[in-house]
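Each record in this resource describes a single protein on a pair of labelled lines. With that in mind, the following record should read easily:

===
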Amino acid sequence: MFYLYGDFFIVKILLKQTGLIRIVRIRPNYQIACSMKACVFNGTLTMAEVPEPLPVNDEVLVRVLYSSICSTDLEIIKGYMGFNGIPGHEFAGEVVSASSPLFGKIVVGEINCSCGVCYLCRTGRRTHCPSRTVLGIQGHDGAFAGFIAVPERNLHVVPATLALESAVFTEPLAAALEIFEQVKIDPDGHAFIFGAGKLGLLVAQVFRLKGYGYTVFSRSDEKVNNAASMDLRTELVSGLRNTDLAEICIDCTGNAEGIQLALSHLYPRGKLVIKTTVAKTEKIDLNQVVINEFEVIGSRCGPFEPALSLLNKGLVKTQPMITEMVEFKDILKGFEFAARPGTIKVLIRH
């Protein structure tokens, strides 16, 4: 028997010898499409031939066109979240499920796949749904593959005027914007942003757009020079004195030690915003949090539509952040580039 599912015929074949039923997918031109190339992590990062994802429930199938390697992806291959499968959560692609109203549209996707009915989902906190899966991070295969299955409600259409090399920055830019959803920032104050990698540079650009005072700090001369070339206010960490303090410190270092560094440069009753997620956790001296009455704020995913709007208007620059562009077949080499000191962002062209 067969029936149409999206742009595939789903065929159930009864294997008489074993009594088992095998399900395969056939495109309308009758070409069997049951496997794809993917970058898979199972203790080791490899390229492999795997089954294409079959959308379930409210999911649609997206053909990945571009993806990018995030610091979280580098942490995953060090053991973060205990993830096994296809990593990758920053992507732009084309919806290929013909039954979807988004069919043929170029989209980007939010990474948290929530149930939509629990208490947290119903109270506007679906990114914290206790039964959620997360693309390429927790319980859900990601974008380092030919195709990815994503809940339709997670997808946002990319404006036709926005280049895909910029659209792939939507997810991290949304994470940068989330800070301003969580924290009231004094326009007359000054923030210290620790880390001049991709997220730190995006956070700094948003601070500049909003007219807030900020300084980006990095241990790397190369990254400081790169930030300066983008007309961002930046300094080396080595130039920081113990007496240099800020009302808000934002940790985008991508390493556990950065949290302690940020804490040490906060005024009493200041706010620490933590963006770093790492496999190796760091102990924090909670006594100084209590004594100085620090406010500690965890921050991750954010709003996609404002991020897409800023990118489409050219108000956030992404080209200076692209260190390498590699073809999908060379994604393992892309991971090597991404792990090198001084690398900002590696994009993958699928």
About this structure: Residues 1-34 form one domain. The longest strand covers residues 59-69. Residues 1-32 have pLDDT under 50 and may be disordered.
